[in-house]
Model the fold of this input.
Amino acid sequence: MNILILAAGQGKRMHSALPKVLHTVAGQPMLARVIASARALDPARIIVVVGHGADAVRSRLDATDLRWVTQSPQLGTGHAVQQAVPELDSSVPTLILYGDVPLTRVSTLQGLCAAATGTLGVLTVTLPDPHGYGRIVRENDQVVRIVEERDASNGERAICEVNTGILVAPTRALIGWLARLRNDNAQGEYYLTDVIAMAVADGLQVATHQPADLWEASGVNSKRQLAELERIAQREAAGVLLDQGVSLIDPARIDIRGSLTCGRDVTIDINCLFDGDVVLGDQVSVGANCVLRNVRVGAGTRIEPFSHLDDAVVGEACRIGPYARLRPGTALARDVHIGNFVEVKASLVGEGSKANHLAYVGDATVGARVNIGAGTITCNYDGVNKHRTVIEDDAFIGSDSQLVAPVRVGRGATLGAGTTLTRDAPPDQLTVSRAKQMSVAAWKRPTKTKS
Ligand code: UD1
Ligand code: CA
Done:
């Protein structure tokens, strides 16, 4: 089939410079979510009608499998579909979706298409308060037309079954109906919904289908509605994790803006944010208030509260945090400990190594079983260039050392506390750079002078 996505509307009520369909739900622009659902149906063509902010929308989402049509000015949903007619393959049906209705399940769309084989089908919902929607008018149970709120009689306004906007139609017939649309209505627009009565006049029996959940049909016109759908999307994602056996201490306090893949017996405490692609191995635990973005964590690793991990790979049985920061390009081997107020960037840290307190490890290659003392800093940046620090296996870096890169600490070397290392430290020796300690026996503390 053809899938046509309408996304030309302005979204005035968003009060934003960003085109409405680029606002995100669970980290993904609404239109990207609709396109993803469309792709899951394996259509012959996906056509997106854009108008307001067309360039921004295209540049953000363009892909080789999409065809773009610009609608300008926007004269209504029927007019939008008319603009796409040259792009439609008339030998297969056309499914019409809205770019601002982001949470429709693929199974619901499949259900609609199955219910409407050979005819026109409309996805409808029954709402306690149908205000604002097009109403589904039936006679003897059969759909006869759709009437928009502003054109409806009082009797019609009492109808609670409404048009979600999502419909599927035989394409050749649809093209014929579109050519006959008129705009003599309350809004002076070309209504796509007018094709329903035309289909009935042509002798078709209009099919309807309902989604399993009402929110599948919810559109976004305001930040308030966007926030509501965000909560729903998060609740659903949390539900999927629970069903898979992940322990969420509070499923209402987790946010997933991308994909989170978990092994067995994973526990996630409250207020964690997962962004991009995150993979947690078996028995990983994530403490409260952590942010993980594009991270892979090995089995048995514990991430303590308030840790921030970005573009990093963490091995098995590691202990991270509390208050640790792993920045892009960090790769930790097995059994590594990164403790509180330790920042690691673009560094490899070997098995069994530890940096437990207050350290900066940047652009470094750290071997196995290395101990990095509190307050240690790799001075990787000379103001112009970044340089690497290499610390070989079994080295011991005393507290408050500065490693002025490029520099190498040999295997088994020990740096005395407070060392400012500017030349390589040879293996297996103690290297220390420190002013000699002295004591002045006769020294007296100054006393307060009287004025
Ligand atoms: C439309 C339906 C109404 C339905 C409601 C569901 C019509 C005439 N009415 O009303 O029956 O209950 O959706 O939300 O179809 N768009 C364009 N170009 C345009 C106008 C709209 O691309 O010229 C797009 C919008 O970006 C949006 C969608 O079409 O994605 C719906 O537009 P909107 O203005 O929200 O339609 P409603 O008047 O709410
Ligand atoms: Ca709408």
In short: The pocket of uridine-diphosphate-N-acetylglucosamine (ligand 1) is lined by residues 6-9, 49, 71, 74-77, 79-80, 98-100, 133-134, 146, 148, 162-165, 191-193, 219 (CB under 6 Å). The two ends are 95 Å apart (CA to CA).
